[in-house]
């Protein structure tokens, strides 16, 4: 457990089982107590699943099946001195429960096996070890089939209706506040602790040029307010290649812990941004814009969200494995400026 937790949070954790990848006996006891395995299936093989930046994510392999145990604690798993909203696991579980009623959404996601509300643990179907689609940053391509599946899933997501009495549970305000800070505010702050030249020589100067543009800062602030605004539509909230997993029969969508009821344009904008960051052809970007138009979304807002996401991934905390240098990053920051400030130009700067 983090040694830096406030006393009230530490107190709330009393009686909560904190999973430990190195404590097989405790995890096996948990599986037995929750009827997730029987004694004849043990011992289990237990290993970390994925990088687990935000949460502890474990793969439990039994003789005939495997499960994913995902536990969000009141801190960021990779940086346990950074506090994080503890309720995120429960809100993610609610997303899976809501998706069950729309097969076109749920069939493209892991099955929710169990939701342990007391210990804040999700038990999910294991999608295998094929990995996510972050390889597209190096490959500079996305297949037509993959793009179609990703757009079809976003369209299907619009058919989930959250009843009025359940909407408070999907506000996800703490996670939205965290995301808002890291997308729209912190990267543009005059004094932050980011050593951008350590990442890419010359990036700090390029970032300063953007920070000194008052029009860009104002519009980023407006977009941030639009991100925080409540609407009736359920939004994934982190729709990027790290949340796209290649399953045995196509793309699967994971990690909706940033979900909220808000602007659908956000998911389309984030998707478009990552196509830009992967430097794929403009024809792929046009398909995303066309799909958002077909869904009757606000194109100006969608393009603005895309520009903000490009910016924060280049000069913010949440860095990506981007295999290129300062020239490409300057070009992308110029694209961000165009999408944020002159969305009427659409993709002419792509």
Radius of gyration: 20 Å
Number of strands: 9
CATH architecture of the largest domain: Alpha-Beta Complex
Number of helices: 14
CATH superfamily of the largest domain, please? Aminoglycoside phosphotransferase (APH), C-terminal lobe
Shape: globular
Distance between the termini: 46 Å
- Helix residue percentage: 40-55%
Structural class: alpha+beta
Describe the structure.
With 350 residues, the chain is α+β, with helices and mostly antiparallel strands. 43% of the residues lie in helices and 11% in strands. A five-stranded antiparallel sheet has the order 1-2-3-5-4, covered by helices on one side. The chain has a two-stranded antiparallel ribbon with strand order 6-9. A two-stranded antiparallel ribbon has the order 7-8. The longest helix is centred in the last third of the chain and has 17 residues, at 299-315. The N and C termini lie far apart (46 Å).
